[in-house]
Amino acid sequence: YHVVAPQNAVLPTPDSTLINGKGRFAGGATSALAVINVESNKRYRFRLISMSCDPNFTFSIDGHSLQV
């Protein structure tokens, strides 16, 4: 089908994730992170965006159950 492109010996690290439009990446500027103050028995929407080709990650909030 096609010729496989040459690769470097080191695979890139997927280390850039945005939470509600805010995030940081290795070697980038120290920018503000998303801080969400929550109240009991209310619903909240968190927008998670992985800026990588390997978008699988685990997201949790200590002491809370999440429903997707």
Question: How would you describe this structure to a colleague?
Answer:
There is one protein chain. With 68 residues, the chain is mostly loops. Helix content is 0%, strand content 9%. The chain is built from no helices and 2 strands. It has a two-stranded antiparallel ribbon with strand order 1-2. The chain is elongated and about 55 Å long. The N and C termini lie far apart (38 Å).
Key phrases:
single chain; 68 residues; little secondary structure
> Got a strand count?
2
Q: What percentage of residues falls in helices of 4 or more residues?
A: under 10%
- So what's the overall shape? elongated
Radius of gyration: 17 Å
Distance from first to last alpha carbon? 38 Å
**Main beta sheet strand tally, sense and closure:** 2 strands, antiparallel
The structure class reads: little secondary structure
Strand fraction? 5-15%
Order of helices and strands: EE
Count of DSSP H/I helices: 0
Mean pLDDT across all amino acids: 81
Low-confidence stretches: none
Strand order of the largest sheet: 1-2
What's the SSE blueprint?
Elements: E1 17-19, E2 48-50
Antiparallel strand pairs: 1-2
Quick rundown:
It comes from Lentinus crinitus. This protein is largely without helices or strands and 68 residues long.
